[in-house]
Prior knowledge:
It comes from Triangularia setosa. InterPro entries: DUF7703. This protein has about 290 residues and is mainly α. The chain contains 7 helices and 2 strands, in the order E-E-H-H-H-H-H-H-H. It has one domain: Rhopdopsin 7-helix transmembrane proteins, CATH 1.20.1070. Helix content is about 70%, strand content about 0%. A hairpin with a 2-residue loop joins strand 1 (about 1-5) and strand 2 (about 5). The longest helix has about 40 residues, at about 165-200.
Amino acid sequence: MAVDSYTIEVIPFSQYNWTFEHPGWLNLNPAAVALITTFLTLGYYLSLELFLLTLLTFRSRKALYFYSLLISTAGLILQSTGYILKAFENPCPAVFVTVLCKVGWVSNVTGFSLVLWSRLHLITQNRSLLRLTLVMIILDAVILHTPIIVFEFGLLSPAGQREKWLLPMEIMERIQQTVFTLQETFLSGLYIFFTFQFLRLGTEIGDGMDKGGGDKVVKRVVGLLIGVQVLAIGLDAGLTAFDFLNMFTLKCTLHPFVYAVKLRLEFVVLNELVGIVKGGLPERFK
């Protein structure tokens, strides 16, 4: 394709390079560019909406749950901005763009785990469990984020030097995605377990429920909450699959959108949990 005195090479979609091996801005393919632009735009829009929704929803801004949501959402905005600058030609320095991407990534991934962790306080008062899961989140953040950040900056090296960073980056990328997916699945699993406890306890929850309709209300609420968690786990599994298919660029493009959807679902979870917990926790559950 010729534009004035410039020649633009159009890459067939079947030959599009989604790996870390391709440095710099994206190659041109209408379908690939449309796909990337669509998901980056959706992720950016949802992130901005979530940021405003978080600020407007919470009256009390002292809880960790609020700040976890805010940090994770702000991280999505930074990450989306970074990927847009990384994907399309612009004058921003590569180091600045990488800093945006990595600060956003750390904030949104570990921030989301803290959202899941802080939500557990609504349905269990098991302090030992809460402490152990918090330690897990902190250790995983340090162990998994640090090498990825180092390797990402290593990939900015000049041609001839960046190649040595490719294999460590590919391996560590798969490891961190898998471990963070397992971590979020574990935290979601704990949540599902405790909501099943609520379901089994039935009409013990909430003095305000009438005895005839209590079971139906609990089943409806718990069914919805478990469905949300299953959807979130499915989204994580999709991102992990792209990593193992060596489609890292596509995975990075989808990442802000997927986490924005999961955070948006978090407001559904919040509303339903508050409705349950207002009935009071049974003594045997504390």
